[in-house]
Amino acid sequence: MHCTDIVPCFIQSGRTTPAPLIIDCANGVGGPAAVKLSEYLGGTLPIVVENASTTTPGALNNACGADYVKTTQKLPPSLTARLQPGQRGCSLDGDADRLMYFYLDDRGQFRMLDGDKIAALVAAFIVELVKAAGLDDSIKVGVVQTAYANGASTKYLAEVSNMSSFHSPEFYFSLAPSSEMCANRCQTSPSCC
Question: How far is CA 109 from the centre of its chain?
């Protein structure tokens, strides 16, 4: 984790202190990292770490974590009394390589943002920054997705954000070569990836 690199930038951004972010660590390895991140951030971004018991037998991913949230489309039971309308939360999986971001809207309805939604929103934000800087003629933004990506996110990238996505033929292992192919294509084609 690069807390020492990222946290000072966040602190210097001058953002107002939001409501605490609740992090469900699935009783896995993300717990100690979330605690450390919380210490680095101090009061700048309050974090409430939940489901961080790494020593309790049978607790790993038990009614918590990213897989639970994705498959049930609801909050883990341990968070139902904690998360309030308008507050944000997220769930990691047991080995902390997946994230489900969620919140309760003003009516208390559960809203989930999976990895595809998060990637599309971040990419759209980057496109807006590039446009605002007046660099949209010289910088093209593209997104590399795995073959498992949600088709709706690919459609959103193409239709709403006017951005192309490139699909890697396999899972993690081919993302780096696919990113390189995407970058090379961006240099020679205005449609980018």
Answer: 20
CA distance 75 to 164: 33
3-state helix, strand, coil in the chain (%, to 5): 40, 15, 45
- Residues 49-72 have pLDDT tens digits of 999 999 999 999 999 999 999 999
Global model pTM greater than 0.85 = no
CA distances from 171 to 8, 35, 71, 75, 145 (A): 33, 30, 20, 27, 9
pLDDT tens digits for range 152-169: 888 888 887 777 777 766
Cα dist from 73 to 67, 126, 160, whole Å: 10, 28, 25
Contact between residue 41 and residue 1 where contact means Cβ atoms under 8 Å apart: no
- The C-alpha angle 173, 178, 183, rounded to 5 degrees, equals 145
- Beta pairing partners, 49: 23
At position 104, the amino acid (one-letter code) is L
Beta-carbon contacts of 11 under 8 Å, excluding residues fewer than 6 positions away, are 41, 44
Structure tokens that stand for 35 in this block: 């605690």
